[in-house]
Amino acid sequence: MQTNAICKSRFRRGFSLPTKQFRQRTTLVLWMLLLCLQMNAQSITQTVTLKGANLSIEQVFASVKKQTGYHIAGNKDVLKMAKPITVDVKNMGLRSFLELIFRDQPLTWEISNKNIFIAKKPITTTNVTPVSTPGVLLPGRVLDEKGAAIPGVTVNVKGTTAIAITNEAGYFNIPSKSEEVTLVFSAIGFESQELRFNPGVALNTVALKVKVQQLSAVVIGNYNTGYQVLSKERATGAFGKPDMEVVKKRTATMDIITRLEGLVPGIQIQGGQTSTNRNGNGVSTQKSVIRGIGSVNLTSDPLYVVNGVIVTDFASINPDDIEDITVLKDAAAAAIWGARAANGVIVVTTKSGNKNQRLSVSYSGFINYAGKPYYGPVRMMNSAEYIQSAKEIFDPISQSYASRIWGTIAPHDQILYDEYLGKITHDQATRSLDSLASINNEGQIRDLWMRGAYTTNHTASISGGNNAYSFYGSLGYTGVTSAIPGETNNSYKLNFSQNANIGQRLRISLNTSLINTVSSRKNAITIGNDFLPYQLFRDAEGNNLSMNYLTGYTDSIRNDYASRSKINLDYVPLDEFNYGHGTSNLMHINITANASLKIWKGLSFAGSYGYQKSPGTVKSYSDNKTIDIRKSIVGLTVAPTTADIPKYYYPTTGGAYTTANNEQRSWTVRNQLIYEAKPRQGKDNLAVQFGLEANEQYNYSSSTTVLGYNEKMGTYAVLDYAALQNGIPGTVTGYGYLFSSPLSIQSTTARFKSSFALASYTFDQKYSVDASWRRDQSNQFGNDVSTQNKPIWSVGAKWQLGREEFMKSIKWLNDLGLRATYGITGNSPYLGAATTVDKLQIISASTSGATQGSMIAGDAYTLNSPANGKLTWENTTNLNIGADFLLLKGRIGGSANWYSRTTTDMIGTIPVNPFTGLSSATGNIGKMTNRGIELSLRTVNIQTEKVQWSTAFIFSYNNNKLVSFTAMNPILNTASYRLGGNILAGYTMKPLFAYQYAGLDNMGDPQIYVNDKSTITKQRSVAKINDVIYMGTTQPKYTGSISSNVAYKGLSLMTNFVFSGGNVMRMPTNTFYTGVLASRPNFQNANYPVYFLDRWKKPGDEQITNIPAFVTNESLSYTRRDVDYFIRGDVNVVKADYLKLRDVTLSYTLPATAVQFLKLQSLSIYCQASNFLIWTANGKIDPDLRIGQGKHGYALGVNVNF
């Protein structure tokens, strides 16, 4: 019994599941595996049809490649040995065909990884060409970079005629006079390599690199939609593929989306935002949009797919485990994903083992240093400038001391007030102010409250396989040390992928991914460069300094509250650091099973089954020593009357302890039948799919807060929360409330049931057509039949113009394909927008006005939204016209696209019958358009045996317009509404309006033009909607990148410039022109930019400055002017175009001799610098740099294959 108790305790501390849950989930996994074993299918038998007499082996294999996609690999001299071939076969299996044509040839063959390796038949049992001089046999093996054997490789002893050919397992034995020799390895499709033979090892092993010959070898040939893999030649849709070498080496972030910046046309990263809109709390994937903003109220994020299954967050994927990324952009590419794919789809495929691959172990790791936070290019006032400004604007009449005793009075103001009230002399005040003016606290802020941020990442992987089973597994660790002291973030990652062939017909795979992220923090304070420049946190003796004025109470009020409540209200920020802490523990579990089963003659069954779970717990504790809790105690304390002890309604011991639990669960089941054939003797390709799919996503969150919590004992105070929320009269502060709720629970469930079909046909390998159809039914739609049965579909066509006979005379044109697609995609409503019953919302008693003895007895209910059974997904029609081209023998290649997206039935507010009790409800209304172009261009500029230089250019342009939307309330159709950045029909989704600034008058007040610039005024609230002008959009209209990769032997220099533009921004502008300096009790907004010194001070200054005068009297300032005329004036709107070096990477791959000496397969090291060489159109502000982040990044990494 005791042993069981110990085991339970250990389970509770970790993430292990309770016994019942563990059995349930184990049963689920076993059920999925059993289902895969019984049902699924993927690969189709390759067949060959060929008729001809005296054909060369090159002609035969050109036809084989065209029909099957298999490539030939072998030494050119070996291929010359082949005899002419006469053959007449129809739909013969590939292996049978090869056995037939090689029956009387002096050659042998082997199939591996879509390659047919050709080698000379062995002359001896060692595959050796005899030499006349006896000597020794040198054994070895040849592999590729992934560890798979390469047959047919020619091995030569340098300087001799001795030759050997590797067998099907990659082994060779070659005779030599001596062991002190150099071996030369050569094979078609691989780089030639030399290796100094090492007699000290049992088996010399060499890894050959795939030869990068032409640009066509760089452009990825296949696209993965999550449902099928399409060849580039047959794909009609608009797809995007990033350069995976750049993706893998971008170390500034572990976020996959951020790593895609500038690598795929049409995708735009939304800096500093995460995609929680669709996917719920806890999602950390960077927000992005594909081909423009697609909705007003719904998400514009793309759909995330991993290994064919929808996921809510890419945070569950280790970037080092990614094999391939495909971005689906138009209807033909994305429509198959249904009512959630209007904004595009990002499909990630993770690594897996290869058949007949020897055991391979790899390691990759890096450290990235981002430095301390950067707080903008505008310098703030130093202490001397600050004190001088404070003296200039000090006005004890309009800002009397008595009027400020309930607020913050900073030290410099206290000195000025003391002098004014006669408490100190002028000389004393001057000395005190001069002392403050001589202090610079920047060093203490950066040393005490900041640190250099850095990230470390390590991934060790192992892979291997034989003919029936292959696997890939990895262990990873990521440690993030933020710029805030006391914060830690550690992620532990496990990934294991398995593939098994059961007989000739059944193939199953199982991928399991686990990521555990644990973070912790202290009660640190975020301090920028806008705090008081003279305030130190620690004195010369190392004592922490108090800042009682930041409590929001003057000394007299603070002392009074402390005396009556018996609670100390001194505030020492550095002491607070250890008075609180927080932790979070988040687990991502992702299990995906796939199976494929060959049924009969091109007919197969395929299935995908996924399960994801993300449980997480966030805990925070604030001790009663923190100033916030001490102030809460005072606010709920009744001072003693006769007794000496006050009555405390808030616990005075322990602290506030909050536990938040979040959990996401989702599952997917997809079954489909696939038929593939090659009609007309292999000249055409036919593929048809039909399937059913179901998935569910469940989100749960709860939050519990207890007061008076004792961390050691685990006890807490029992309180009357209802009474505290209703309020306690007669407290020290007058009347006290407890605004927090002890418990909050929320859960949502989204279900989809779908049927779908795909069909494609390619005629004569030149003309392709395809179509897709899908119907989604969901609890996120209304229950009306018309909403549940709306189809989503697409059609597309492609013409391989470059393969026409009349185009072959154009020698500089190697390939040209024209394509067009049209279709409909959808954007699903948010959960709860469509309900079959009226939706109620609970209002707490304190909010509803319920008090003891009132007519309202507790919580109240209000109608949140009436039922709308006809609500449906937003409908987007997509038209795409594109071209793919390859020029100058593959040295120039790329693609171009023009698209038009029109979204209708957008979710918005519609008027309803007043008898419902509401004037409006959620419905489908409005129209939006997105039109644009995309260009991707790649060039191979230099390509020699030692030097290679390639470049890439990516450009995207998007024009977004909200054509119509919910009818605007006339009350809201004002100039101030437009200035607030709200959406407005007829403009882009992120419009920016501004006043027409007319400078300052002779009192230093800002003025604007009105009435078509016929009038200049400073009067408040006179501007009409026509008096504010449209300056542009804050959303970039064009984005792109310019990349270069120069390689010399083992050295490689890769640079990536990114650019963005066509948008505008407001300059960071001081908004403080009235009142007093540092009037707020916090660590922000106490200091101001240095151009505050250039404000209007006397008549005539309006000729030399645009910055308004400072008016101490807030009432006077409000009645005589509006400083927003300057703050939101066109004078402060600038272009947001920029170009910057996002990253530059220098890498070095060790030569074969060095790798052999180290007993490794390969080794490369690299260093990287990011965010340099910035150019901005405004010449001042970097629109891309977010305040509080490091300005530059530096990284060092290594990749090793053992």
TrEMBL record:
Q: How does it sit in the membrane?
A: Multi-pass membrane protein
**Superkingdom of the organism of origin:** Bacteria
Identify the main location. membrane
Key words of the record? Cell outer membrane, Membrane, TonB box, Transmembrane, Transmembrane beta strand, Transport
InterPro entries noted in UniProt = Beta-barrel_TonB, Beta-barrel_TonB_sf, CarboxyPept-like_regulatory, Plug_dom, Plug_dom_sf, TonB-dep_OMP_SusC/RagA, TonB-dep_OMP_SusC/RagA_CS, TonB-dep_rcpt-like
Which Gene Ontology CC terms are recorded?
A: cell outer membrane
Q: What family, per the record?
A: Belongs to the TonB-dependent receptor family.
Q: What is this protein called?
A: TonB-linked SusC/RagA family outer membrane protein
Task: Please tell me the species this chain comes from.
Answer: Chitinophaga skermanii
